[in-house]
Amino acid sequence: MKYKIGIIGSGRMANIYVEKLLNMQDVIISGICGRSESVELLARKTGAKAYYDYKQMLNEDDFDAVYITTPTSTHAGMAKAVAEKKINLFLEKPIALTVKEAYEVLKTIEDSGIICTSGHMFRYKNTVKKLKDIFTNKPIALINGHWYWTIPPISHIANKDMGGGPVVDQLIHLIDLARLFAGEINTVKASYTCNCRVDEDFNNWDGYAINLTFKNGTVGNISGTLALYDSIKEQSLLENCALDIIAKDFLGRFTPSHIQLYSSGEVKTIEDKSGEINEDFIAAIRSNDRSLIKSNIRDAVKTTIAVLACNHSAATGKVVSIDDYMKDECGEIL
Predict the structure, then answer these.
(1) Cβ contacts of 221 within 8 Å, gap of 6 or more
(2) CA 28 from centroid of its chain's CA atoms
(3) What would the DSSP string read from start to end of 126-151?
(4) Which domain holds residue 267?
(5) 210: helix, coil or strand?
(6) Closest CA to 220 of 240, 200, 190
(7) Which of 112, 117, 154, 209 is most buried per CB count within 10 Å?
């Protein structure tokens, strides 16, 4: 059996996923929707039909799954349209730029019964599973993370008014992992600045720091910057992205390439690149096994709400209760 995949979006993320899917023998990319030049290039590469209207694409083909890789501001309408047609969905993160839209996406997808993952790819890494297993029965005192970066290369991400800012677009990955390890967030207090690029053509924040409390008593700090140089993306000696999880007499450190385990007199490094989001998503569709989905839509919406609460905290200067914010914005606590 061949599984037919449609892709909405023809930019950077679509190209990444196309490369993964083309290596799967039982997968056919049969439709791609995007802008004229880029979608034509991807259509020629994959043999897919090029579309310029996603609704037309959804109506004309019988897909087993659809990927949505477009700017975040477009996610909600597209995701609901896919779910209403009962098509399995890979939805890039963040889910939406407002709590109301994210909540509507959640309800539509859960009501549809489709298999859905969001693009929180770190959850699928086997190194993350190893860390999760280690900390399952250990009370966590502190989670501390950072992501040091430069100006994003994609225009709609580089502009906070279009992409929501770096906490919503990038630090969301670390905040999602913090939720995985420590459970639900109780409060957030965020502070943002533009202190280095203030004289540049730069509509974003270049420094951001978040204090978190969790319902299980854990506390956390996650911070980041867009103030650094472009080549930081290739500098392997600087761990520009890391998350530390600290329990009694033990520290586990996650980075995208490896994990490190610190205990008295010992440091153990585990390099394991296995565990890949596209492979598990397609495997879930093949087997109709939802247990293979490690970032379901409800978890993804909770993380989206958390990062939107950070933006709200930074704008108001207040500590934000996640439950209160959720109830105010969508009428219930998820």
Answers:
(1) 142, 143, 144, 145, 209, 210, 211, 212
(2) 25
(3) HHHHHHHHHHTTS-EEEEEEEEE--S
(4) 122-275+307-320
(5) strand
(6) 190
(7) 117
Q: Which two tokens stand for residue 171?
A: 């630090």
Bridge-based pairing state of the strands 140-148 and 241-247 = antiparallel
Distances (CA, A) of 315 to 19, 172, 211, 234, 311: 39, 18, 15, 33, 6
Of 76, 91, 157, nearest to 121 by C-alpha is 91
Q: Which pLDDT belongs to residue 116?
A: 99
Peptide bond into 94 cis (omega under 30): yes
Token readout for 268 is 């153990």
> Do both 141 and 74 map to the same domain?
no
Q: The domain that contains 292 carries what CATH number?
A: 3.40.50.720
Give how many domains the chain has, as a whole number.
2
In the chain, % helix, strand, coil (3-state, to 5) comes to 45, 25, 30
Residue 198 forms part of a structural domain: yes
Query: Per residue in 154-203, pLDDT tens?
Result: 999 999 999 999 999 999 999 999 999 999 999 999 999 999 999 999 99
User: For residue range 110-158, what is the model confidence (pLDDT) as tens digits?
Assistant: 999 999 999 999 999 999 999 999 999 999 999 999 999 999 999 999 9
List the alpha helices (DSSP H) in 23-74: 36-46, 54-60
Token pair of 11 as six digits: 């930019």
Task: Dihedral sign for Cα 71, 74, 75, 81, please.
Answer: negative
pTM for this entry: 0.96
Report strand pairing: 207-214 vs 259-263. unpaired
Residue 287 lies in a domain: yes
Burial degree of 276 (CB within 10 A; 0-12, 13-18, 19+): middle
Residue with structure tokens 């890494």?
125
Half-sphere exposure of 206 (CA within 13 A, CB side): 15
Q: Which residue has the tokens 């957030």?
A: 188
Beta-strand ranges (E) seen in 37-130 are 49-51, 65-68, 88-91, 116-118
